[in-house]
Amino acid sequence: MLSPNKVDEVKRLLTSGLLSRRGISVQTGVSRTVVNRIANGTRREKPTNNPETIIQLRTGPVERCPRCGRKIVMPCLACLVRPRILSSVPPLVLGVELVGEERKRYEQLRASRNE
After folding, report:
1. Mean pLDDT, the chain, as a whole number?
2. pTM confidence score
3. Taking every pair of C-alpha atoms in the chain, what is the biggest distance, in angstroms?
4. Angle value at C-alpha 71, between 70 and 73, nearest 5 degrees
5. pLDDT grade, residue 11 (50/70/90)?
C-alpha cells in the first residue's frame, strides 16, 4: 500500500522527465510495475471508507438464515446476491440425457434449489 505522498512523489518525478521509470523506481523504492501503472493511469486507488458510500448491510444479529440455513449476520448476503448471479449465468449444457430414476432425482434437485 502506497502512501499518497509516495504516489505524488512518483507523479512529480514522472512529469519532470529527468529520470527514467526504472530510475524513479530505484529512487522512491516503489516497484517498476507500480511506477508504470501510475504513469499509464491504470493504478487502482484505495477504496474510500466514506460512510456515505458504504451500504450498511452487516448490522443485524447473528442467526440462521431461514432460506439457506447458514449462520450469518443478517441479512444473508448470499441469499441477496444468488438470484442476481444465477440470472446472469447461462445454463450449463453437458449434452447428457438423464432417464428413469436419474431424471426424477435431477428434477427434484432442481425444484428444491429454485424454491
Report:
1. 82
2. 0.43
3. 76
4. 115
5. very high
Greatest mean pLDDT range, 23-32, 58-67, 79-88, 106-115: 23-32
Tell me phi and psi for residue 71, to 5 degrees.
-95, 110
For residue 61, is the peptide bond before it cis, meaning its omega torsion is within 30 degrees of 0? Answer: no
Distance of CA 33 to the CA centre of its chain: 22
Three-state secondary-structure class, residue 47? coil
Query: All 3 cell numbers of residue 59?
Result: 448490522
What torsion, rounded to 10 degrees, do the Cα atoms 20, 22, 27, 33 define?
120
Residue matched to cell numbers 450469518: 72
Over range 25-43, report the average pLDDT.
93
**What distance in Å separates the CA atoms of residue 2 and residue 37, rounded to the nearest whole number?**
13
